[in-house]
Amino acid sequence: MTSLKKSLGILTFLFSVARIQAAVPPLSGQLKILEPLVNRHWVGEMKSPDGSRTFNSEVNFQVVWDGSVVRYTASIPEIGSFSEGYFYFDEETQKVAVFIISSRGAVERGMVSVENGVLMVKGSMAFPKQTFDFKNTFEFTAGGKMIDRWFQNASGSWQPGHVVEFAEQVVRK
Asked: For a tag site, which of 46, 50, 110, 126 has the least CB within 10 Å?
């Protein structure tokens, strides 16, 4: 085989691999409730608890593994907060579940549902010295925004936490 044929063969192979990797798999049937979130880069500003500061926040929901899993990443670089997790269909409970671990030592486990058109994650959050329940909602506006609301009961009663209005940011390649 000539070197030109070898080069063309290698280029064809690399192009095929790149096309396969660039293709986004469709969500599996059970994960379709996550459709409004996925394959988007969301950006917003999170306010400090006292409202005196804001922090850039970014979240991504990427369909992976032939559509059977959604990979979640979140970051708030100014405060060194990074999280990664996975949404998947739990065969045992027959529900969409999520598992997230953060750079601050927290582990979140929960179940996903849709209530009154709002995507809701309910579960527990475990830190090294405390575990509590949380509820995180994702509401989508007619204007294409995603409103992320967080609630937790770390002190015993339910308390509101952050509210972040996210907009989709188009990522240019």
From this structure: 50
